[in-house]
Specification:
Order of helices and strands: HHHHHHHHHHH
Helix content: over 70%
Structural class: mainly alpha
Mean pLDDT: 89
């Protein structure tokens, strides 16, 4: 009986989002994009984005970033990433932070990049944890802090981020980030960077 009750609750939760007509329009827009009809996909996404649909704002930002279906425009890309980010969209937050880090379409602002990456990192998003670790390593947007960098690298590795494991391996190999030279530890971290083989 409990299993049936859980299934009914899950079904109700899944159907709750079906009432939003924007979801059907969004699926159609993404279908156009995946079929490489970028212009039609961008037009559908633009309508949804202008009406506050965060996933559409993020995807439209990416189309502007890449120049697919719309002229390449990093300023508009950053604009749409910010709109999505303000609504809590993970992709929007990450790419807004990337835009601030690189100065793509927005002024280069390492402090703002760090703030957005850190917000996501605290929520357990491994790519953002890696970016926070790099910021602490290099002192970009935050004071240089080797202990914090190592901690964030370890958290990113726990989240499956291979580049974080490679960076820890390098640190142990070269005696960086306040870590001792330790070839055995370096190899252990390098092994964590490799995908599992069956």
């Amino acid at each position: 009986m409990r299993a049936l009750f859980r299934c009914l609750l899950l079904g109700a939760a899944l159907l709750a989002g079906c009432d939003d007509p924007r979801q059907g329009q969004y699926r159609l827009a993404m279908q156009r994009v995946f079929q490489r009809d970028y212009r039609a996909g961008a037009a559908l996404l633009a309508t949804l984005a202008q009406n506050g649909h965060a996933p559409s704002q993020f995807r439209l930002g990416f189309l502007y970033r890449l120049g697919l279906g719309v002229p390449r425009n990093l300023r508009l890309s950053g604009y749409w990433f910010e709109k999505a980010a303000q609504q809590g969209h993970v992709g929007g937050q990450y790419w807004l932070a990337e835009s601030y880090r690189r100065g793509d379409g927005v002024p280069r602002a390492p402090e703002l990049a760090f703030q957005w990456f850190n917000r996501l990192a605290e929520q357990g998003y491994a790519p953002a944890q890696y970016q926070v670790a790099l910021a602490y390593t290099e002192g970009l947007g935050v004071s240089k802090n080797d202990v914090a960098a190592v901690g964030w690298l370890q958290r990113a590795v726990a989240g499956g981020h291979g580049d974080a494991a490679r960076r820890l391996a390098q640190a142990y190999r070269d005696g960086e980030l306040g870590l001792p030279r330790d070839p055995r530890q370096a190899q252990q971290w390098e092994d964590k960077a490799q995908p599992a083989r069956f």
